[in-house]
């Protein structure tokens, strides 16, 4: 029992930074130490970069069934894709370190890349088998290659079992809906309030693993299998999300101000319209069919809006099966064979409200449509009403039926094999191969085919029968015209024509072959005069090949999803050196420097088109560690890191579509002078006669860009680690980090391109015009357009301070107490979306542009009591500082985030309690409750919610479902 208590004690700290000591590392062959962030191996190695280590017991304390749940509680992380994202979800789970994006953190599994860079899905990792998670802050491309800009997250699994291990857990959410104001608001809008109390969102997870040592411990085989299931939660089950909340002031015609109301979508079963024809007397205004059935159009007001919340998921359903195995066998000290195989089958559904003829699309509405009254046609077509023409019109019409469901299926495979060993004289080697394959299928159900909607709206009267023009000309003989001019006028037959399913599939693979040699030159006498330890080196070669093949059926392509394919191959050589300069001298207990260099040569190719590109890039690092005495260590690092563009960013199929914008060089009196227009391709003969974009609908070219170059980042860290001898079992570290990502890959809105060109004449923007060689226009098929593909744009920058403290002390016969604290103070979170343009800082803000709340200060603290009876009681305190709506700043780039209510989110404090009881050495029970006091999340204007917002709040940041309760056990045989 004493050994069990020691185990619980050692893992009690929540996320205490281990400050680069051996506790943060694992042994390699020969007794050397392997540290995340370096390939050098030696017995006394310490990390020179800030590193947080999360132990396996933290998963038990939290009742976590996903690995991202544990990491997202750390202040270094911002919530990303997870089970609480439904609309627009790709079904994956990701992490976002330093709020620089999930694609700028490198995810490793046992020191190797997890999956293809654009297919990372943390659901692949069985949480019950996680031994620890190493979180390294700052760039690490010199060690690992592309993607390690904000840092590295390395999941280390338990692979050496000798026996059987069963881990099982069940949990659910419980919430009391008692927000009187929201419930009254919902009743006043004619909506049913959420139940007064709910128990839902069940989560079950079980993993069984078995292992066996053989050949006197020189070999081991471990296999595992797991099953996990999440039950869905609808938005109608919570007060905060039972209707889409909007600020009355932000909605024209609402009549009241400074309060939220139950809004919703303007895609309603009544039918709404925005005439775009110049002949319409209501051009640009939003009209709706009068609910009295009089056949007239009236100005839209929010009382007509459709409540999308009841069908929308607050938590996606998910069902996952995992299986795999690990093996190793030591032939001799010079050769140990090892390998692994892992598999995941995951199916998840997202669900949103019934589909609609989409309001954001301009359809050709027939000006003698047989379903429309004369008054309706006059409002849409003006003087052209009753003629055999069409008028461009944005049409919104909710077709009531089954909700839209997105069926997302993954079959993921990963295997590795290698040989490693000790060569003697301080040298060891590791040669390995890893291959991962992600097979993804998506079926979107119950969705309106917008191409069919366009044909169904272009109807005329043929012998008294409403008939699609596409039937007359034979382009679509099956077309059935739809009646959007009468509330509830779309019949079952008409809906059946509109509805359909779309299917897409992808096959994404990554193959990596790598070889490295690590050596301690001290055993060969290479030691500096003032140091006892020798110089350490690591050399290696790596070859990676990533492929993507994405397919889309006809329906998906009609809705704008196009096939694509591509290959990225990279060949790399790398080296690293660690030099102990001074040891055991006054004021120099140790002084060590470390340097690394990597050369990468990229070859990119698209098989379907034959397009190729390539580039070569160097990455490098320099680190320093100085310990004047045993109790104090100062560490600093600089890294030049990169993120190479992925296959989709390079090779996504390009297409031209309608985009909002105004050509500054069009018309008889252009708003831009000729000198600027000339930069966009306008000749003197064209100037003053270029046709303007009709209804401000220009053409834009979207898709991939084979000319992309890698993002580059310069990252700096400086910190101090204190481990005083006078205060045993106490450690404190404070680290400063500064990361700037330049030429980050994104796209620029065509309207911004046109505006920036007209205002500044900057060739960067003006060169993105491709004009029709005859007319100079930038609209129409086979004509001009604005380039809005992926491109290297501005910069991202963040800096801050990480504070980590951990202290354990005995309390006599009552056991021991552990206190661990991890906090982050954010100094800046800056974005410059346009090269040479303005920038904005999202520190302490939230909103449409800044996205999720970005507090200046966040921390997680855990107080754990380890009793003599093998019971551990643990209390966690999660603190998120308050944030302010970004439009309240004086930065004009943030002025669009307008609302008059709930413009500040106060500080949030959550308390979680767990209990772990070791029955004996084989059996341990656990139970707990997160968000003990059932604290409601902040309530926000739904119009502000971008980047992973859902249900009028940010469920990745705050506990949106209420308190969660779990119980589980671990058994070892």
TrEMBL record:
Residues 1-24 form the signal peptide. Keywords: Cell outer membrane, Membrane, Signal, TonB box, Transmembrane, Transmembrane beta strand, Transport. Pfam families: Plug (PF07715), TonB_dep_Rec_b-barrel (PF00593). It is a multi-pass membrane protein. Its main location: membrane. Belongs to the TonB-dependent receptor family. It comes from Novosphingobium lindaniclasticum LE124. Coiled coil: none annotated. This is TonB-denpendent receptor. InterPro entries: Beta-barrel_TonB, Beta-barrel_TonB_sf, Plug_dom, Plug_dom_sf, TonB-dep_rcpt-like, TonB_rcpt_CS. It is found in: Cell outer membrane. A motif (TonB C-terminal box) lies at residues 956-973. One of its GO terms (cellular component) is cell outer membrane. Residues 46-152 form the TonB-dependent receptor plug domain. Residues 393-931 form the TonB-dependent receptor-like beta-barrel domain. It comes from the Bacteria.
């Amino acid at each position: 029992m004493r050994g069990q208590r020691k185990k619980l004690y050692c893992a009690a700290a929540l996320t205490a930074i281990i400050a680069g000591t051996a506790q943060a590392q694992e042994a390699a062959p020969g007794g050397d130490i392997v540290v995340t962030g370096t390939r050098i191996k030696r017995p006394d190695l310490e990390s020179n970069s800030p590193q947080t280590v999360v132990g396996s017991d933290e998963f038990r304390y939290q009742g976590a069934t996903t690995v991202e749940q544990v990491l997202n509680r750390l202040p270094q992380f911002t919530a990303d894709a997870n089970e609480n994202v439904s609309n627009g979800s790709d079904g994956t789970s990701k992490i976002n370190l330093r709020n620089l994006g999930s694609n700028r953190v490198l995810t490793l599994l046992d020191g190797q890349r997890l999956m293809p860079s654009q297919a990372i899905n943390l659901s692949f990792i069985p949480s019950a088998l996680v031994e620890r998670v190493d979180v390294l802050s700052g760039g690490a491309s010199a060690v690992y290659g592309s993607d390690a800009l904000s840092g590295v997250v390395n999941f280390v699994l338990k692979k050496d079992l000798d026996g059987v291990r069963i881990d099982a857990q069940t949990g659910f959410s419980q919430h009391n809906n008692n927000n009187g104001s929201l419930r009254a608001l919902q009743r006043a809008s004619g909506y049913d309030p959420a139940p007064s109390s709910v128990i839902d969102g069940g989560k079950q997870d079980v993993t069984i693993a078995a292992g066996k040592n053989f050949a006197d411990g020189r070999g081991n085989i471990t296999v595992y299998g797991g099953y996990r299931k999440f039950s869905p939660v609808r938005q109608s089950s919570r007060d905060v999300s039972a209707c889409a909340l909007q600020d009355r002031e932000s909605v024209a015609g609402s009549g009241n101000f400074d309060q939220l109301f139950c809004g919703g979508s303007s895609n309603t079963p009544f039918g709404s319209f925005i005439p775009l024809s110049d002949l319409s007397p209501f051009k640009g205004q939003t009209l709706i069919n009068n609910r009295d059935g009089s056949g007239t159009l009236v100005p839209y007001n929010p009382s007509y809006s459709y409540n999308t919340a009841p069908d929308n998921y607050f938590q996606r359903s998910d069902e996952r099966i995992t299986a795999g195995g690990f093996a190793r066998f030591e032939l001799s000290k010079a050769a140990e064979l090892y390998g692994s195989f892992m598999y995941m089958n995951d199916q998840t559904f997202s669900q949103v409200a019934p589909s609609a003829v989409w309001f954001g699309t301009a359809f050709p509405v027939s000006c003698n449509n047989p379903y429309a009254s004369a008054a309706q046609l006059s409002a849409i077509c003006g003087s052209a009403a009753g003629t055999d023409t069409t008028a461009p019109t944005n049409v919104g019409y909710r077709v009531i039926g089954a909700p839209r469901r997105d069926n997302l299926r993954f079959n993921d495979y990963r295997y590795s094999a290698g040989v490693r060993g000790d060569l003697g004289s301080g040298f060891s080697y590791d040669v390995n191969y890893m291959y991962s394959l992600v097979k993804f299928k998506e079926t979107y159900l119950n969705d309106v085919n917008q191409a069919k909607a366009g044909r169904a709206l272009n109807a005329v009267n043929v012998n008294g029968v409403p008939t699609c023009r596409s039937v007359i000309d034979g382009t679509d003989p099956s077309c059935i015209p739809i009646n959007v001019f009468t509330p509830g006028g779309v019949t079952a037959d008409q809906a059946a024509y509109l509805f359909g399913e779309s299917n897409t599939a992808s096959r994404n693979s990554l193959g990596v072959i790598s070889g490295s040699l690590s050596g301690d030159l001290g055993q060969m006498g290479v030691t500096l005069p003032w140091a006892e330890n020798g110089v350490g080196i690591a050399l290696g070669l790596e070859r990676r090949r990533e492929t993507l093949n994405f397919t889309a059926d006809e329906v998906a392509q009609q809705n704008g999803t196009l096939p694509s394919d591509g290959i990225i191959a990279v060949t790399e050589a790398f080296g690293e050196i660690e030099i102990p300069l001074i040891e055991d001298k006054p004021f120099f207990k140790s002084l060590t420097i470390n340097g690394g260099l990597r050369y990468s040569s990229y070859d990119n190719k698209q098989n379907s088109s034959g397009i190729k590109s390539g580039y070569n890039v160097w990455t490098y690092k320099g680190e320093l560690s100085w310990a004047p005495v045993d109790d104090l260590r100062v560490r600093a690092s600089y890294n030049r890191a990169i993120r190479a563009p992925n296959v989709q960013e390079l090779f996504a199929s390009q297409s031209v579509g309608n985009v909002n914008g105004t050509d500054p060089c069009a018309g008889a009196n252009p708003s831009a002078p000729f000198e600027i227009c000339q930069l966009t391709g306008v000749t003197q003969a064209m100037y003053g006669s270029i046709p303007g974009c009709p209804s401000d609908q220009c053409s834009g070219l979207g898709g991939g860009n084979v000319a992309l170059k890698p993002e580059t980042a310069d990252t700096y860290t400086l910190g101090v680690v204190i481990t005083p001898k006078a205060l045993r079992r106490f450690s404190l570290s404070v680290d400063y980090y500064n990361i700037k990502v330049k030429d980050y890959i994104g796209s620029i809105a065509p309207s911004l391109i046109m505006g920036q060109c007209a205002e500044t004449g900057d060739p960067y923007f003006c060169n993105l015009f491709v004009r029709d060689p005859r007319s100079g226009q930038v609209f129409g098929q086979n004509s001009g357009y604005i380039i809005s593909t992926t491109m290297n744009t501005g910069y991202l920058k963040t800096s801050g301070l990480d504070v980590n403290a951990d202290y354990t002390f005995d309390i006599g016969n009552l056991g021991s107490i552990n206190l661990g604290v991890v906090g982050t103070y954010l100094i800046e979170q800056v974005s410059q979306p346009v090269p040479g343009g303005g920038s904005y800082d999202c520190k302490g803000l939230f909103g449409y542009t800044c996205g999720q709340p970005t507090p200046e200060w966040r921390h997680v603290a855990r107080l754990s009591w380890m009793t003599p009876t093998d019971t551990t009681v643990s209390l966690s305190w999660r603190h998120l500082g308050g944030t302010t709506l970004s439009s309240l700043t004086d930065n004009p780039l943030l002025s669009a985030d307008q609302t008059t209510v709930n413009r500040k989110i106060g500080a949030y404090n959550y308390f979680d309690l767990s209990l772990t009881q070791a029955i004996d050495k084989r059996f341990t029970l656990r139970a707990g409750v997160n968000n003990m006091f059932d604290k409601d999340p902040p309530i926000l204007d739904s119009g502000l919610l971008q980047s992973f917002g859902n249900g009028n709040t940010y469920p990745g940041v705050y506990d949106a479902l209420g308190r969660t309760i779990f119980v589980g056990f671990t058994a070892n045989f």
